[in-house]
Amino acid sequence: MDIEKEKIEKLWNKEAYYQLIENAQGKGEESKFFINIIADIINKHNPTSILDVGCGEGGVISDLAQRTSGTRNFSGVDVAAIGIKRSKKKGVTNATFELYDGLTIPFSDGKFELAFSTFVFEHLTKPERVFAEMGRVTKQGGYILIACPNYGSPFFRSPCNKENKTVLLLKRLVKSFMPKFFFTESFCWEKVTPIILDKEDHIIDYDTTIEPNLVFFMKHIKTNPIYEIVEANSFWGNFTYGGVSRAKKIFLETMSFLGKHNFPFIKYYGPFFFILLKKV
Ligand SMILES: C[S@@+](CC[C@H](N)C(=O)[O-])C[C@H]1O[C@@H](n2cnc3c(N)ncnc32)[C@H](O)[C@@H]1O
């Protein structure tokens, strides 16, 4: 195992990390926002078998089990033993939780009608592999949902990315217009070096390993005939921009205005990466 991966796995298994996401799950408006969206999708499409990839300590499944009606079976997988242990302790009667190696989801092909993942993809070392696995375990006609920060957007970046903001913005805008054939092999997301691997004090998203980019991902999906995009959204304007300079706030509000009015590209360059796919 390479050193970086080993360090990341150690990070997921620290008590302090789960303390942090537990607090974020209980109060974080972003987390609640996406749980509500997933609950609506479940109530609309009515999947009976549901998988949460990177379930953490089972908070999302536990909330969804309470907020959705009907008979459903939830399964959660994660690379963190401590997360799985805590998930099991939550006592959700229609859910099972399993530790896995982060690469091969321990279920047979086509087992699930919905496979979702929230706030995990920005932490992956092999996102293409995890996505392929989500596709494999999803039934034909079933759905895949991914939500995470859109850190690969020209207008955002993870706290681990210290590149000059203007250079980053220009580089990413140019990349957005590059022809499709550049994007067939991978998602074309940029890797970053997590900055808290060795520390005990965890700060959300200082553990980012890769910067998801919704536009590149959509280009990738459009080359893949087994998936249909049901919905893609970057949620411009749903959140306020705290802790940024006045100039940046005005800039983001302008982009938000354009994004909300479906301005090409900018529409998908908001703060979040949200995609719902159907396996056809
Ligand atoms: C920020 S937490 C998100 C937890 C939960 N999904 C939520 O929305 O609250 C990131 C989770 O991703 C998990 N993770 C990291 N690498 C993973 C992989 N390859 N496959 C599945 N989960 C992974 C971590 O163990 C951690 O529980």
From TrEMBL:
<dbReference type="GO" id="GO:0008757">
    <property type="term" value="F:S-adenosylmethionine-dependent methyltransferase activity"/>
</dbReference>
<protein>
    <recommendedName>
        <fullName>Methyltransferase type 11 domain-containing protein</fullName>
    </recommendedName>
</protein>
<dbReference type="InterPro" id="IPR029063">
    <property type="entry name" value="SAM-dependent_MTases_sf"/>
</dbReference>
<feature type="domain" description="Methyltransferase type 11">
    <location>
        <begin position="51"/>
        <end position="146"/>
    </location>
</feature>
<dbReference type="InterPro" id="IPR013216">
    <property type="entry name" value="Methyltransf_11"/>
</dbReference>
<dbReference type="Pfam" id="PF08241">
    <property type="entry name" value="Methyltransf_11"/>
</dbReference>
